[in-house]
UniProtKB/TrEMBL annotation:
Entry function: Catalyzes the ferrous insertion into protoporphyrin IX.
Pathway(s): Porphyrin-containing compound metabolism; protoheme biosynthesis; protoheme from protoporphyrin-IX: step 1/1
GO BP term (any one): heme biosynthetic process
NCBIfam families cross-referenced by the UniProt entry: hemH
Record's keyword terms, sorted: Heme biosynthesis, Iron, Lyase, Membrane, Mitochondrion, Mitochondrion inner membrane, Porphyrin biosynthesis
Single GO cellular component term: mitochondrial inner membrane
E.C. numbers: 4.98.1.1
Name this polypeptide is given: Ferrochelatase
InterPro entries listed in its UniProt record: Ferrochelatase, Ferrochelatase_AS, Ferrochelatase_C, Ferrochelatase_N
The reaction(s) this protein catalyses: heme b + 2 H(+) = protoporphyrin IX + Fe(2+)
Amino acid sequence: MLVSLCRRNSIVMRLSAALHTETAQKPKTAIVMLNMGGPQTVDEVGAYLHRIMTDRDMIQLPVQSRLGPWIASRRTDEVKKKYMEIGGGSPILKWTNLQGSMLTKALDQMLPESAPHKHYVAFRYVPPFTDETFEQLEKDGIERAVIFSQYPQYSCATTGSSLNAIADFYRKRQIPQNIKFSMIERWPTHPLLAKVFTERIKEKLEKFDSSLRNDVLIMFTAHSLPLKAVSRGDTYPHEVAATVAATMNELKLPNPHRLVWQSKVGPLPWLQPYTDDAIKAYSKQGRKHLILVPIAFVNEHIETLHELDIEYCEELAHEAGVIQIERASAPNDHPIFIAALADVVAKHLTNGPRVSKQFLSRCPHCVSERCKSSKEFFRKLCSQSSLKDQTYA
């Protein structure tokens, strides 16, 4: 009898402990990390390219429903080869999950009142897709959700496309009234972001002989943008430039620097000078010691590991007669970068605003009804008023 009672009490205690652990681990605050994503295997490349080439937020093509799939199909084998050369797939999900895990651990210590925090990844063109992520977020019973762009500098083509995908998800779906939403759509001049880029530059400067270290040309490189978008008023170019200025101010070294642009797609004119052209031009000028700094990317992916490392630093630099070229690492899991993420989110959770006036302002020459309706959606989603029974039509 006594043994039976002890066993029963032991079972009750274990069940109680399990329930307590489950309750304790239930996330209260979601940090939704937005990014483009990249195929984890070469088998995903075709579908990945198809989604990019048919997304008019990302790129505008004539008769896009036909031309987009055709371009994607034509490029698939070439892009597959590039992914094979960097290990068979993109590491962006690995890095984002690692960053998210480290971020939420830091937030749990900094803000116990909003803990436990849980990170969610919402990619635009590969799993985990936006729809899947927000479905899971709702199932988890989240009380507060911070939509956090992993593009520090805002562009309608990148962050804007991801935000439009969230608006699309709720277009014919009831907005959950029990979740308090807010968003961080840009953070280009955060001092710790500038500091981590500074540290990455210093790591590479150490590889140069001390006699010429102060003369090494620092080339900040970012994904280019069609001039049509620039003329419309997209804020991306000046936000990238602001990150460059903040980094050089933090670096406090006499090295010359320039901002250049990479990854042009299609026949239309894009922001210049292009990174590859600049490398060749500087070599002709006698500038043969260079550092490339991917200033708009927070983790390694195809455009750093292949375009910069293989196509530019190995092949092009050799052809152009460059003596030494180094490529600064992306922030990845650098402790200063994790501190930057945590500080951005903690200040947002503490002081807001839930949606910025900068985001709600449209470009001066914007004629997109999709953009207009998306901004109106987020104004409502992040408002202080009750969202009960609201749908986005």
